[in-house]
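Bench notes, afternoon.
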Amino acid sequence: MRNLLNARVGAQAEYVVLDESAVAQAPRTVTPAEAATIPLNGLTAAQALDLLALGDGEWLLVTGAAGALDAAVLSVEALNAVRDGGSFVAVAAGAAPPPLRGTRVHNVWIRTDPSQLAELSALVDAGKLTPRVAATQPLDTVASAHERLQARGLRGRIVLQPA
C-alpha cells in the first residue's frame, strides 16, 4: 500500500520504501507472513465499517470475506439483500451499484492509517483478530499464485516471500 500516485504500479516487490507516517508496529504474536495480510484486509474492513457507521443492533452482510476480502463483487445482487434505506459499501473500484430504494452506497478507497494499523495489531496480539494465510510461496511463483486465486476456494491470502 502506498499513497503515491506517481509511483510505478506493481503488486509484488522484494523491497518497498514507505513513508514513516504510513506504517505501524507489526503484531508480535504472529509470523511475518500472517502479519503481511493485515494492512490491506484489515484497513479495508475497518474503513468500510467507518463508512457504514452502524449502530447497536444493526445487521451487516459480508460477501466473499473468506478469501481476499473481495466482497465477491456481487454489486446489484448484494444490494438486493440490503433493506430500503440501508447502506452498502463496495471494496472493488467501480463495483458500487446505483443507490436504489433510498440506500446509501459507498466505495471504500483504502488509505494508509497508522493508528488503525496499530489498533489491528493490538487486536491480533489480544487474540481477537486472526490473520488467515492460505499459502506461502516464493515471490518468483507469482503466476501460479494468481492461478490459485482465479480457481477460487482459498480461505485466506497467498503470501509471496522473497528468496
